[in-house]
Structures are given as structure tokens and as C-alpha cells.
Design brief:
The strands form four sheets. Strands 7-8-6-9-10-11 form a six-stranded parallel sheet, with helices on both faces. Strands 15-16-20-17-18-19 form a six-stranded mixed sheet, with helices on both faces. A five-stranded mixed sheet has the order 1-5-4-3-2. The chain has three domains: about 80 residues, 3-Layer(aba) Sandwich (Udp-n-acetylmuramoylalanyl-d-glutamate--2,6- Diaminopimelate Ligase, Chain: A, domain 1); about 210 residues, 3-Layer(aba) Sandwich (UDP-N-acetylmuramoyl-L-alanine:D-glutamate ligase); about 130 residues, Protein-Tyrosine Phosphatase, Chain A, CATH 3.90.190. It contains 15 helices and 20 strands. The protein is globular. Helix 8 links the parallel strand 10 and strand 11. By secondary structure, the chain is α/β, with parallel strands linked by helices. The model has no long low-confidence stretch (mean pLDDT about 95). About 35% of the residues lie in helices and about 20% in strands. The chain starts with 5 loop residues before the first helix and ends with a helix.
Length: about 450
């Protein structure tokens, strides 16, 4: 596996090299807390100036620095006018230089990361690690894209208009997948869901001419995207009821995952997943349909999908003493994802079904109403108890009704006698929340006790 030296990177992004230009970083890093030895530390100017952490990066093993002015540090440096621009150009150039036969992007209001994992498996391709899905993380990942890949699957997220457009400029796409158009980041879109659909649709607009993109046939906003003039250069592949590709015979296997039959123009293909929840079967059906439409053999797609396992915070199930189970969905939260995960919880073995939820973010002026409605639907689904924390915890609880308790923050949830210590043994527990509230702390507390 051959990555670029500072000399090679400078040829792509410009700038001046100080020190040994032959050094070959093993990766790029934007954060000293997660920097691995051998990385090139990128000193970005954001809320804090990354240049202030360069010495710390070297102490942690950085092999080189990408900076916008020379630093008095004994470490090779690539000095550029703008480190953000250089980061993005580095990732863009690396992809262009070692571009796989097929590059696909995944976006949507929920399920992006899981679906990226499923599509990468179905295609047998490389994938962006973790959730590196924004204008910083995507080029950071692409900068060390390995040579010789047949396919690459890139997660593309956004919180404001134009972000996915920029991502498709960095990484032009041959194919795409939109999981769902929901309400996440609604406060940033005055046009509401239409604005969100336009922003997600930037992935479709950014497809190379003749590209293909898959979407749930039942999603009206995905169908809206397909009708727009800026989407007509690409082929839409609706997946679902009444379409050549769809899914049927859905079966919950509890903690073991689920199974379904994928309907294709050539017949039915049985697929079994290790991911729990009917929403994951839908994601798998979308990934499988797109992979098969792109030429992958049905039997191979089915086998590969069966190897995908839940990641931390994304559907991982922990068995609990007394026969209960904890469903760790703590990475992030939106109304659609909370309800999908609650349905998955009900398919798990154990006692009463309950939830520990951090508040959601970026829902705009309707946030209180959305939290109340989410609480009410959780009650209607059959959950019996709710522990909520954060700035909209009271709204969650008001919607849920009797059996709900609200706390202002995690510390109160942890320390109050009516908080986590009151969760009954043997229960099925969903833990989820916005990234801001770090709901994984509740998972750690529960598993430790």
C-alpha cells in the first residue's frame, strides 16, 4: 500500500516543504486526541487554532504537519496558504489518482452509516471509516485511499445547504443511495422538508451523467427529488412495494438480527442479517438492489450482507443479567431513527420495554412539539417507561405520559434515585440521544452495574 510523501502531496496541493519531504504519512489527523503515530497533523483554524496543538501532535507521534505558516518545531512541514483548502484538495487529488472503478455515495436523514457499511459489503468495496462524512472528515479519509480498489463507498452528511454539493465536488460519484428524507437539522432549513430534500438531493445532482441512485419507493420526498430537472441526468432506482426491486417475508430473529427475501427482476433472493430491526432490513434491501443493479451477483451480495455486524452506538446489543437486553443506539438521534430503534427493541427478548433518551438537536422552532409527538408514539408502540434527559426532556415526558421521568442532564439522570438506578432488572432498554448529550455514558453506567 503506497501513500504519498510530502513531496507528492505538495505537487497536488501546492505549498512549501520544510524539512524532509520524503516522509510518507500513514494518515491525516485533525485531532490530537485521536492522532495515531505516523500521521500528518492538519492544523485547521476553527473554534480553536490547530496550530496551537502542533507541538502536542508531534509529542504523540505525528510524522509531519500541514500548516499555514512555518512553526518552530522539529518536524517536517508542508506550509500552504489555507490548510482547509489543502486538506480538501489532498483528498480530491488522491481519489482522482487511484480512483476505483466505481465510487458510490450514501446520504439520508437516518441510517447513513449502517447503510454505508451494508453497501460497501454488498459491493466488496472500501468505505470511509467511522462517520467521516463532512467536508473535513471525507477528504481526511480519502487522502489515504488505498490503491487497487474496485469500489469505494462514501458516507455524505450535511447540516446546511451546499455541504453535500461540496462533497460531490471533492468526490464525484458514479452511484448513490438515499436512505430517507426526514426532519434532521430542520432548524437550518426555512423551507422545511423540501429544503432538506433539496440538500440531500445534492448527492443526486452530483452524480456523473448516467449514474444511478437507489431510494425507498415509499418516500415521497425521494420521489420528489427524482422529478426535479437537476436529477434527470441520473437513473432513479425505487425499491419497495410495486417495484421490480423490493423486500418481503420480513422475519425478526431478535438479537440475532433479521431475514427477508429480496424481490428482483430475476427472482427472489433470501438474505439474512446480523443487524437487528426492520429498518436495517430496508437499508439492506436498498444496498442489495443497488449492488445487483450495478452488476454484482445476487448470491454474493446476500453472503456479504450477512457478514455485517453492528458497530458501537449503532445497534449493538448487550445481554443483561436477568434475561434483559440493552440496545446501544447512542451515536445520534432523530424522530425517525428513535421510532425505528424502538420497534427493533420490541423484537428483542426480555422483560418490559423502556427507553433512556437524550434530547434531539437542530429541530428548530418545532422541537418541543416533535419531542412530545415522539414520546407519544413510543407509548403507543408499547414501551412502558421512559427516562429522558436534556433540554427537551420534559417534552418527551409530557408526550409519553405516566411512566416517564425527565432530568435536566446526564448527571441528574445518573445520580437521582428515580434515574438509572430505578431501571428494573430484566428489562429491554433502548439508549439513544443526540451526539451533543453523549448518551453512551448511560450505556457505560448500565453495563458497569
Amino acid at each position: 500500500m503506497s501513500f504519498w510523501s510530502l513531496f507528492q502531496a505538495a505537487a497536488q496541493v501546492g505549498g512549501e516543504i520544510l524539512g524532509d519531504g520524503a516522509v510518507m504519512p500513514s494518515s491525516l489527523s485533525l485531532d490530537t486526541r485521536t492522532l495515531e503515530p505516523g500521521a500528518c497533523f492538519v492544523a485547521l483554524r476553527a473554534e480553536r487554532d490547530g496550530h496551537d496543538f502542533a507541538l502536542q501532535a508531534v509529542a504523540r507521534g505525528a510524522a509531519a504537519l500541514l500548516v499555514d505558516h512555518p512553526l518552530d518545531i522539529d518536524c517536517p512541514q508542508l506550509v500552504v496558504p489555507d490548510t482547509l483548502d489543502a486538506l480538501q484538495r489532498w483528498g480530491q487529488a488522491r481519489l482522482a489518482a487511484v480512483r476505483p472503478r466505481l465510487v458510490a455515495g450514501v446520504t439520508g436523514s437516518v441510517g447513513k452509516t449502517s447503510t454505508k457499511e451494508l453497501l460497501a459489503a454488498a459491493l466488496g468495496g472500501w468505505k470511509t471509516p467511522g462517520n467521516r462524512n463532512n467536508t473535513l472528515g471525507l477528504p481526511e479519509a480519502l487522502a489515504t485511499l488505498p490503491e487497487g480498489q474496485d469500489a469505494a463507498v462514501l458516507e455524505m452528511g450535511m447540516s446546511t445547504p451546499g455541504e453535500i454539493r461540496r462533497l460531490t465536488e471533492i468526490a464525484p460519484l458514479d452511484a448513490g443511495l438515499v436512505t430517507l428524507i426526514g426532519t434532521a437539522h430542520a432548524e437550518n432549513f426555512p423551507k422545511g422538508q423540501e429544503g432538506i430534500a433539496e440538500a440531500k438531493g445534492e448527492l443526486v445532482a452530483g452524480l456523473n451523467r448516467g449514474g444511478i441512485w437507489a431510494h425507498p419507493a415509499a418516500d415521497p420526498w425521494c420521489r420528489w427529488i427524482a422529478r426535479q430537472s437537476w436529477a434527470r441526468h441520473a437513473e432513479a432506482l425505487p425499491v419497495g412495494e410495486g417495484e421490480p426491486f423490493g423486500w418481503e417475508a420480513v422475519e425478526s430473529l431478535g438479537a440475532a438480527g433479521g431475514a427477508f427475501r429480496l424481490r428482483t427482476p430475476a427472482g427472489l433472493v433470501p438474505i439474512r442479517l446480523q443487524l437487528p430491526g426492520e429498518h436495517q432490513l430496508r437499508n439492506a434491501a436498498l444496498a442489495a438492489a443497488l449492488a445487483m443493479r450495478l452488476g454484482e451477483a445476487p448470491e454474493q451480495v446476500a453472503r456479504r450482507l450477512g457478514t455485517v455486524v453492528p458497530g458501537a452506538g449503532r445497534g449493538r446489543i448487550h445481554g443483561l443479567p436477568g434475561g434483559g437486553a440493552l440496545l446501544d443506539e447512542t451515536y445520534n438521534a432523530s424522530p425517525d431513527s428513535i421510532l425505528a430503534c424502538a420497534r427493533a427493541l420490541l423484537g428483542l427478548p426480555g422483560g418490559e420495554a423502556l427507553a433512556v433518551l437524550g434530547s434531539m438537536r437542530e429541530l428548530g422552532t418545532e422541537a418541543a412539539r416533535i419531542h412530545r409527538e415522539t414520546g407519544a408514539v413510543l407509548r403507543a408502540l408499547g414501551l412502558t417507561r421512559l427516562w429522558a434527559f436534556g433540554d427537551f426532556a420534559r417534552d418527551y415526558a409530557d408526550g409519553f405520559g405516566p411512566g416517564a421521568t425527565a432530568f435536566p442532564d446526564f448527571e441528574a439522570l445518573r445520580d437521582d434515585a428515580a434515574g438509572l438506578t430505578a431501571i428494573p432488572p430484566g428489562a429491554r432498554i433502548l439508549v439513544k440521544g443526540s451526539r451533543y448529550w453523549r448518551a453512551e455514558r448511560a450505556v457505560d453506567w448500565l453495563l458497569a452495574r
